[in-house]
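Usage

Read records sequentially. Each one opens with the input sequence:
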Amino acid sequence: MLEDGKVILCWPNHVNKATVGGGNWEDELPASKLLDPTLAEQARSKNLDLSSTQLLFTLPRFRPIGVVAMAAHNLTAVARWRVTVYFDAAATEQLWQSDWVRVWPAVYATSELEWEYDNYWGGEFDDADRESFTPLATLFLPSPQIGQAVRIEIDDTSNGAGYVSLGRVFISRVWQPTYNMSYGVQWGYDIDTQFETAGDANRTEYADPATPKRTVSFALEHLDREEGFRKALAAQREIGLHGEILYAQEPQASPESFATTFIARQVSVSPLSHPYFGTYANSIALREIL
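and closes with the structure output:
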């Protein structure tokens, strides 16, 4: 059982070695696009029928599954999704199935909204505000399952685009260290906006805006020997600086958890240190992948 308020790190993405089928997807934008880690490589359904907007990922061998996520999607504020995990590659022995849940959780805290707003109590966003938020749906399982297939079903039959598009699916194990990250964690944004300066007297600046990418840096200073070598240091070896890692602060959906959950890569790696008997420490710095 995952604990709220304690850092969650998820890797590797099992989709990298999976096969995908199911649904009805465009020939030029097939479901296999989701096996590419580039989020701009989109898969697009041919229509919005429930039979068309589903996916079945088959893993090459049994893997621990603790989280499933969909990134870079075009799903609307009323879209729902369901995840089913199967023991076998043929997807006949069901291990766990979620309820139908909203793709977009509450994204606004009550303090951000006026009493007169329709979404005051629920905190949901309107599709007109969609561009203000990173399209990422995340579902943590109550307990990890060891399985070989995962089905994702999407219900967004009122989507005005007439189709569902996705950039990436993330399926992984989860890790919460025994002790949380230390105080001093830093959240922020990396904004790579470039400027050109004109040659006029005012030196007028012209911006080439870039989408802000979320960042987080923190220290795990109370790891035991196994966590230090088999988790923290193993992440550096397994995903390097280019591989995906999903970072979260809590498994339950809330405006705060939505703001602090993202798929990232390691910006840099730090040595595993052994400051005193029985304790190991490591610093982690992540930047969002868009």
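Summary fields computed downstream for this record:
- The chain has two domains: 13-172, 186-288.
- The chain has a mean pLDDT of 92.
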